[in-house]
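Sample entry (138 residues):
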Amino acid sequence: MPKSEQRSIMFDADGVLRAIVAASACMKPLGLPRDRATTSISFDEAEQCIVLEYGPSRPHPAVRLKSETLCAILLNSCIRQGLPIPRHADKSVEVQTAAALLKLRIEIDRQRCEEQEERLTRRLVRLGQSWIDGEKAV
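Predicted structure, serialized as C-alpha cells:
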C-alpha cells in the first residue's frame, strides 16, 4: 500500500498571470498595482519566486512574489476553476525555468484504508453468498 500520493499542477506564464488577475481582490496587499497591466513575467528558479514587470513607470517597476504567496494565488485559481484540492494535503510551489508547479502531497492513513478494505471484503462475501444461495442481493 502506498504511503503518500503526490500531484502536480503546472502553470505556464499565461496561467500564472490569469491566476493573479483572478485574485485581484488581494492585489493591493501584495503590493501589485491594480491600475497597470503586467508587461512581462519571469521565473527565478534559484530564488524560487516570480518577477512581474510593470514597465518603466514608478513606483512599481517590478514586483517579486515568493513561492508561498504564489502558492496561495494558484490554490485560489484552482478552487475557482473547480479543481479538487484536498484540504489536508501539504501544498507548495516549485518555480521552474518557464513554469510554476503547484505540488500537492497527501499522506495516506493506513489504518483507515485497512478498515475500508475490510468493510468492502465483508460486503463482497455477503453478496457472493447471497448469489450462491439464490437470494436477493443485500
